[in-house]
Amino acid sequence: MDTQGQTKKVYLQTFGCQMNEYDSGKILEQLHALSYHRTEDPRQADLILINTCAIREKSEHKVYSLLGSLGRIKLENPGVKIGVGGCVAQQKGEEILKRVKLVDLVFGTDNIFELPDMLARSDNGERVLRTEWHPGNKKIDNFIPVFPGTRGQETPITASIAITKGCNNFCSFCVVPYTRGREVSREPDNIIEEASRLVGWGAKEIMLLGQNVNSYRAGQTRFVDLLQRLNGLEGLERIRYTSPHPKDFNEQLAQAHRDLPKLCEHLHLPFQSGSDRILKAMRRNHRIAEYLEKMEMVRETVPGIALSTDIIVGFPGESDEDFHGTLQVMDAVRFDHIYAFKFSPRSDTPAADFPDQVPERIKADRLARIHELHERTLKEIHRGLVGSRQEVLLEGAHPRESGALIGRTRGHKSTTIPGCSRKPGEIVNVEIVATRKFSLVGREVGRGS
Ligand code: SF4
């Protein structure tokens, strides 16, 4: 209710990564306290917010085009407020206010907590811009949600917690250090409290988020120490994390995957390119031989661990030989999952101005070859899993197969279980009976541990 006792509605559209989804939860939390309820229809809204992402290609262009269509709602109903937050807002704040007169507020990634004040100012006719950083502000960094249901996640069974924000690495292709600032680690007690609250609301699995998650360090608490503490949390079944950096991946962390029962046997470790020359131009701070040694070490420590990665093809200056190096790494590691992208320049990053940009058709051809190789490998990996026993955390009904439930193995493989009468949130043991292009099919053989 507002001061006149009326319920208000907010329409919030989120773009981008899990970190942005997490931030949208914080936005909704702020608005919930101001009696806003979420609506999926922007025409019903009193407040329209876009939480933007600068990672994807032409992101800025997409924001302006979306503002154009949402702005028509404001022309029909001038009482509606329009706000833009997130990474594009952080980068282009003033420009957005200048270019789109219908926008009432623009706020950066560190300014979500100023929303109540921004809205009050906007009520007084001010157009508000807030993109200042608040380094070391514990109130902001250690925020814990109070209301279940404001998290913006589809299922409460798997929940995310950001344990760091920002990044100090300055990879030459990435906007994150500019849009999210320098790296800050949250207090461990505060993270445990958030995890306990989420478990109390029904979460079984927690995904720890950070741009360089394994460089987490708060006082004497390192990333592995935090994992150990979370492993002791009653009611929590599984822990995952994303995205770690190869330079900070070490033996202790590999051993944690072996020794902590709740930490899943899945590691997502981006390698980006199989060429040392390109890694240097990317400013990735590691060499490919080191990466391969670490992958071998983790496989020896945790046999059967599922491995996934990020790959960029067509980085400026990437020759056929460099690209061949990437294919060789894929052949050597045999990833369970890959996220592969063509390089595309992001405004304000050094790589955008590098010479020797690779022509679009070569990038497209290289990307297709990456996917082809991955699909061949995956087919073999999945074939090898048929007949194996897997523990699956059930997440919900299959969207297209009636009577089937869907969940994930500890290796993060999506698994369909036809005719399963269990409930989402339960863990079941299944025997893998068939494979699909990117997923598995299982038969329930009992309740999991
Ligand atoms: S480590 Fe990740 S988030 Fe940080 S600059 Fe590099 S790519 Fe960006």
State the gist of this model.
The protein is of the alpha/beta class and 449 residues long.
Please tell me about this protein's structure.
The protein has four domains: 8-130, Cobalamin-binding domain (Rossmann fold); 153-264, Transcription Regulator spoIIAA; 290-385, Transcription Regulator spoIIAA; 389-447, OB fold (Dihydrolipoamide Acetyltransferase, E2P). It is built from 13 helices and 21 strands. The chain has a six-stranded parallel β-sheet, with helices on both faces. Strand 11 (217-218) and strand 12 (221-222) form a beta hairpin. The chain is an alpha/beta fold. The chain is globular, with a radius of gyration of 23 Å. It has helices at 18-32, 59-76, 87-99, 115-123, 138-141, 176-179, 188-200, 223-231, 251-259, 276-282, 288-301, 320-333, 360-385, and strands at residues 8-14, 36-38, 47-52, 81-86, 105-107, 128-130, 158-162, 164-165, 184-185, 205-209, 217-218, 221-222, 238-242, 266-268, 306-313, 337-342, 389-397, 405-408, 414-417, 427-435, 440-447. Residues 167, 169-171, 174, 176-177, 211-212, 245 line the site of iron/sulfur cluster. Iron/sulfur cluster binds at residues 167, 169-171, 174, 176-177, 211-212, 245.
